[in-house]
Design goal:
By secondary structure, this protein is α/β, with parallel strands linked by helices. It contains twelve helices and 22 strands. The protein has helices spanning about 15-25, 45-50, 55-70, 85-110, 190-200, 220-235, 325-340, 370-375, 390-395, 425-435, 440-445, 455-465, and strands spanning about 1-10, 30-35, 115-120, 120-125, 130, 140-150, 150-155, 165-170, 180-185, 205-210, 235-240, 245-250, 255-260, 265-270, 270-275, 280, 315, 355, 360-365, 380-385, 400-405, 415-420. The strands form five sheets. Strands 1, 2, 3, 4, 5, 6 and 17 form a seven-stranded mixed sheet that branches. Strands 8-15-9-10-11 form a five-stranded parallel sheet, covered by helices on one side. Strands 18-19-22-21-20 form a five-stranded antiparallel sheet, with helices on both faces. A hairpin with a 5-residue loop joins strand 5 (about 130) and strand 6 (about 140-150). Helix 1 (about 15-25) runs parallel beside helix 4 (about 85-110) and helix 3 runs antiparallel to helix 4. The longest helix has 26 residues, at about 85-110. The radius of gyration is 24 Å and the shape is globular.
Length: about 475
């Protein structure tokens, strides 16, 4: 039986980061991973790297470059002639990006002395981990500490069984070899919007069927309303309150039955993507007597420090409470590794940014205006449009705004929400500010480079207190 200081189950963003940090802190560390890639090689990196964050961003970037070349360069005086898309080449490039990143993690494991172990891990009593290899052979590891980072999987729904051919989940949607003529998407959340955007730019007629009556309910309402207008203008057909009741394959197409505005409807699609959320991958992960408990939704129960009910066993990432975000899982992994090494460290869950990688991007951190109202917190608002930012005008990319929320009495920043070019990077400036307890005035007094998109953050902070320079100041909202 092999003995380690730390055994990590899962090599996604939470697991591999935890393993690397533990090894950096001098702990003998192993990381277990069961997944294999198309070449039947060990696929480190989890969902995010293999079939999630990274490949989807590769396709988003490729599809947007195609859109720019086809439709958006004329205003710059650039003529491109006929523009074509080679979908298999685009998919091959995506696979190359993934392979490169997997190799990077493998190299980091070697450099830091992390032992990669292939197989499926299961937590046993007494801080032991059973590893079942692909050939069925079983071995057992002993550990002083175990970090569970098994991740999540797409939620399946009975009315639309996935066959990864005509009806696919988010993984299958990354493998299309041609542009669907008409594409249906069940779910208009983050994944549905991103994947729908990819194929819409490439020429698909995209219809998103969303069961909820509200659009992006977790996003600040003003930003969500703006996003809905932008996506409609881009050609995405988003139908709220559309509940799918059944599907039927007909001549290599899929007939979808759904209710919409109290009417029963059917529609034919060439492909259908099911992306209604993800669930924790906790089935078969825990022996009954290991001491680790699940909540009613299948998440591993942990405290604020990601400790389970069993001493010396931790859980991080998608398999525990909180947003299913790669960066959240990574930082939990770092926190746990540090605490195992005896360091007193905690994670600030109030400053986790979220991003939707459409174009324009949508990003936010902290409280939304709706949350502040519901909590009865007195606040003030500053907004600033990108159309008034010189850099955005020069780039012909002026859609969107920055919205900043601060406490009415203390001026402390409570949240920031952005729709616009580079929103994912711009919001990070406010994440840093909030981490240090900054006020809107602090950002307003900071020197921002000109001309930059970041100036929209600066101006929104100034607008909180009615001091914006490059637009008329409106009466402060409450």
């Amino acid at each position: 039986m092999s003995k380690f200081d730390v055994v990590v189950i899962g090599s996604g963003p939470a697991g591999y980061v935890a393993a690397i940090r533990a090894a950096q802190l001098g702990l003998k560390t192993a990381c277990i991973e069961k997944n294999r890639n198309k070449e039947d090689k060990l696929a480190l990196g989890g969902t995010c790297l293999n079939v999630g964050c990274i490949p989807s961003k590769a396709l988003l970037d490729s599809s947007y470059k195609y859109h720019e070349a086809k439709d958006a360069l004329g205003v710059h005086g650039i003529s491109t002639g006929d523009v074509a898309i080679d979908v298999p080449a685009m998919i091959k490039r995506k696979d190359g990006v993934v392979a490169q990143m997997i190799g990077g993690i493998s190299g980091l494991f070697q450099a830091n002395g992390v032992t990669a172990i292939e197989g499926a891990g299961k937590v046993l009593a007494g801080k032991k981990v059973e590893v079942t290899a692909a050939d069925g052979s079983v071995s057992v590891l002993e550990a002083d500490n175990i970090i569970i980072a098994a991740g999540s999987v797409p939620v399946a729904i009975p009315p639309a069984p996935v066959d990864q051919n005509i009806i696919v989940d988010s993984t299958g949607a990354l493998e299309f070899q041609e542009v669907p003529g008409k594409l249906g998407v069940i779910g208009a959340g983050v994944i549905g919007l991103e994947l729908g955007s990819v194929w819409s730019r490439l020429g698909s007629e995209v219809v998103l069927l969303e069961a909820l009556e509200s659009f992006l309910p977790a996003v600040d309402g003003q930003i969500a309303k703006e996003a809905a207008k932008v996506f409609k203008k881009q050609g995405l057909d988003i139908r709220l309150g559309a509940r799918v009741t059944g599907t039927k394959i007909v001549k290599k197409q899929v007939e979808v039955s759904y209710t919409f505005k109290d009417e029963e409807k059917t529609e034919i699609f060439d492909k259908l993507i099911v992306c209604v959320g993800r669930k924790p991958l906790s089935t078969g992960l825990l022996a009954a007597d290991c001491g680790v408990n699940l909540d009613e939704r299948g998440f591993i129960f942990v405290n604020d420090y990601c400790e389970t009910d069993a001493a010396g066993i931790y859980a991080v990432g998608d398999i525990v409470r909180g947003p299913m975000l790669a960066h959240k899982g990574s930082e939990e992994g770092v926190m746990v590794a540090e605490r195992i090494a005896g360091h007193k460290i905690a994670m600030n869950y109030d400053c986790i940014p979220s991003v939707i990688y459409t174009h324009p991007e949508i990003a936010g951190v902290g409280k939304t205006e709706e949350q502040l109202k519901a909590d009865g917190i007195p606040y003030k608002v500053g907004t600033f449009p990108f159309v008034a930012i010189g850099r955005a005008v020069a780039a012909n990319d002026t859609t969107g705004m920055v919205k900043m929320l601060a406490h009415e009495d203390t001026d402390r920043i409570l949240g920031c929400h952005i729709i616009g070019a580079s929103a994912a990077d711009l919001v990070q400036q406010v994440v840093i500010a909030m981490e240090f307890g900054s006020s809107a005035e602090d950002i307003g007094l900071t020197v921002f480079g000109h001309p930059t998109l970041s100036e929209a953050v600066h101006e929104a902070a100034l607008a909180v207190n009615g001091q914006a320079i490059h637009m008329p100041n409106r009466k402060k909202r409450k």
